[in-house]
Design a protein that fits this description.
The chain is an alpha+beta fold and 259 residues long. It contains three helices and twelve strands; from the N terminus they run H-H-E-E-E-E-E-E-E-E-E-E-E-E-H. The protein has helices at residues 3-29, 31-40, 251-255; strands at 55-70, 75-87, 103-106, 116-118, 126-127, 133-136, 140-143, 146-152, 168-177, 185-188, 206-218, 227-238. The strands form two sheets. Strands 1, 2, 3, 5, 6, 7, 8 and 10 form an eight-stranded mixed beta sheet that branches. The radius of gyration is 24 Å and the shape is globular. The structure holds 2-acetamido-2-deoxy-beta-D-glucopyranose (NAG). Keywords: Signal. One of its GO terms (molecular function) is transmembrane signaling receptor activity. This is Neurotransmitter-gated ion-channel ligand-binding domain-containing protein.
Length: 259
Amino acid sequence: MGMVAKNRFYAAFVLVAILSVQETSASSRFGPVISRLRKKSDPDVMPFAKEGGPLEVSLTLNIINIASVNPKRGEVEVLVWQAMSWRNPDLAWWPPDHMNVTSVRIHPKYLWTPDITIFNNARATEEVTPPIASVDSYGTVTLLPSLRIRVLCDLSDMTLNRLLDEQMAVCEIRMGSWTYGADILTLVEPQSENLGTSSYSQGSEFNLLDVRAKKNVFYYPCCDEPYEDLKFFFTFSRKRQVNTWSADGGLLHEKIRYG
Ligand SMILES: *[C@@H]1O[C@H](CO)[C@@H](O)[C@H](O)[C@H]1NC(C)=O
C-alpha cells in the first residue's frame, strides 16, 4: 500500500470508528425506549383511558398565516401549527430504568393516532412538516404538524363590513374525530391562553384580529351516542395598503372595494 492509500485507509477507518461510536451511544440511550414503544404499540388499537371514560384528546391550533382568500369560491387558505396530544398509559416507562430518558421522537406510523379531520375542508389538507410524534415517559403522545388548510367560508359579507375601514370576515375551522363518538373519544376545549395571534406572520396580507375555540356536542339521526367537534373561529381583515398593489392574484382585489 502506498503512503496516500494508507492515509486514506486510515482516515476512512477513523471516520467509521467515530460514526460507529456515535451510533452506539445514540442507540444505547434512546434506542431501547424506541424499540420498546414499537413492540408495545399497536397502531390499530386505541389507548384505553384508565378511568374507564372516553379518551381525552387535546387539540389546539396556532394560525401562522392567512395565505389567500377567495371570496368567489368562498375559500380561505390558512397555514397552522396544530398540536394534538393524548395519553397512552401502556407506553409509559420509568426513566431511571432507561438511562433517564424522559421523552423520545418516533414516526407516528408506529402509534395509534386519532382520526381528527377538518369537516369544512374545501380541499385536501397538506402536511407541511415531516410526521414525527413525541412520546414522554408518562405515555403522553404529542403531534405538532404544520398544516396548509383550505376551508369553506362565506365571504359574501366581506364587501359590506367596513369596521375600522377594513374589510373583515370571520371564518371557522371545524375539526373532530371522523368516526368516534364522544363516549369513546372526547375533545378537550383549548384554554384561551393557548390560542391567540402571537405566532401570526407580520408580513401577511391579512391581519389576524382574534381566535377563539368552542366545543360543540351534537347527535346524528342514526345514532344514540353524542359526537363532538371543535370550532376555531378566526377574525381577520385585509391590510389596507394591499389595495394599492397591482393585483396579480386578482380576485380579491377586484371583488373587494372600499366605499
Ligand atoms: C439518572 O439520574 C439520577 C438522578 O439525577 C442519577 O443519580 C443517575 O446517575 C442517572 N443515571 C444515568 C444512567 O444517567
